[in-house]
Design goal:
With 385 residues, the protein is α/β, with parallel strands linked by helices. Helices cover 31% and strands 25% of the residues.
């Protein structure tokens, strides 16, 4: 067999005769459409233009440009807007305490939408924040400290009288909202009555402290013992005896460091804190006073003692018994220095205290004969004044 190859025009005429005029026209349209479709498939897809979105939150309005298909969350991020849920806030400072359940709402053209909702055209997004609520408050009455104590007590102080204030506080936060003084306090002040305080330094001593305690018991006199922490650690039973017999304990540092104000602050803190801890461990009670060895005073001393709630106890009368003069000389100096509210400095440790021990009964008698009463350094007795 021989294959015949006809020209294209010839083949087309024969096909037209076979199909007829109508069917030939339809076929021609299909071919044209196929060609058009093929040409369109090779073209770039149509890209929709970006659009603007208005984002509103309270008094803030921001307009941002988005591409179709971006979300509500994208719009908020572009506008730097964050929905804020309602909180329970403190009554004093307005600090957030915890969520109150009133959640923020995001709307698009007035309808609530999720943050992942897709945007296709210009819209208005409104963010409605949750509303805060304020915690409840309560009103209570508190004591007002008298205050008024000097940085270093050189004289006996009248304790003063606490006042009363009415305070409104937040129930959850405890923040103070307001305070009103109901009764003003009466500040502490120097004693004006015929009272004195008797103090002993550098103990406890197993030789002298028990003897001093015997004399004080016989005379029914209360005194203050300023004890050295290292000595307390060696004789804790004596520190405890002092307290049990009704006397006052005072911190005299751990190692009796004179000139302590010239040492680094860390040394000052260690000496004062360790002295206090030694007394508390021996007796179960922390001392309320601090006496500086050698009378060393400085702002750092006041700072550290205040942090420990200890009042600096100084003196107004120093008969220099630490020099071991004759008992009569000690007595004369004490009597000569008597004045209302005076604080007398003696020693029950730190060396030979035979002269002090011998003079002590006569000192007590002479002071009482002069009309004076022995009291604690801070006292509320009527005769303190």
């Amino acid at each position: 067999m021989v294959a015949l190859f006809l020209p294209a025009t010839t083949r087309a005429r024969r096909a037209r005769r076979r199909l007829g005029p109508v069917r030939w026209a339809a076929a021609t349209v299909l071919v044209v459409l196929s060609v058009l479709a093929a040409s369109c498939s090779d073209a770039e897809p149509r890209v929709l233009p970006p659009f603007s979105v208005s984002v509103q939150q309270a008094d803030l309005t921001e307009t941002v440009e988005l591409d179709p298909g971006q979300t509500v969350g994208d719009a908020l991020e572009e506008a730097d807007v964050t929905p804020v849920d309602g909180q329970v806030v403190s009554a004093g400072t307005g600090t957030a305490i915890e969520p109150n359940g009133d959640l923020a709402v995001v709307q698009v053209d007035g309808d609530p939408v999720p943050l992942d909702g897709v945007l296709q055209a210009t819209v208005t997004i409104e963010v409605i924040d949750g509303t805060d609520t304020t915690e409840d408050t309560t009103t209570e009455r508190r004591a007002l400290a008298p205050g008024g104590l000097p940085d270093a007590m050189q004289f006996v102080q009248h304790v003063g009288k606490p006042g009363v204030e009415e305070v409104t506080v937040g129930v959850m936060s405890g923040e103070e909202v307001s305070a009103e003084t109901i009764t003003p306090p009466v500040p502490a002040h120097r004693a004006t009555g015929k009272v004195v305080a008797l103090t002993f330094d550098d103990g406890p001593s197993p030789t002298y402290t028990p003897e001093v305690l015997k004399i004080l018991e016989e005379k029914q006199v209360t005194a203050t013992f300023c004890q050295v922490g290292s000595e307390v650690e060696q004789h804790p039973e004596l520190a405890k005896q002092v307290l049990e017999e009704g006397h006052v304990l005072c911190n005299h540092t751990h190692d009796h460091v004179e000139g302590l104000e010239n040492e680094p602050r860390a040394t000052v803190e260690a000496q004062i804190q360790d002295g206090s801890e030694a007394i508390e461990q021996a007796t179960g009670e922390a001392p309320v006073f601090y006496r500086p060895p050698g009378g060393s005073l400085a702002p750092v001393i006041y700072d550290v003692t205040a942090a420990q709630d200890e009042t600096v106890l100084y003196w107004s009368s120093d008969p220099e018994d630490w020099k071991r003069p004759p008992p009569d000389e000690i007595l004369l100096k004490v009597v000569a220095g008597l004045e209302p509210g005076g604080i007398i400095l003696l020693h029950d440790g730190g060396g030979n205290r035979d002269s002090t021990l011998a003079a002590l009964p006569e000192i007590i008698d002479a002071v009482q004969d002069a009309g004076y009463t022995f009291v604690a350094p801070i006292s509320g007795r009527p005769q303190v004044g």
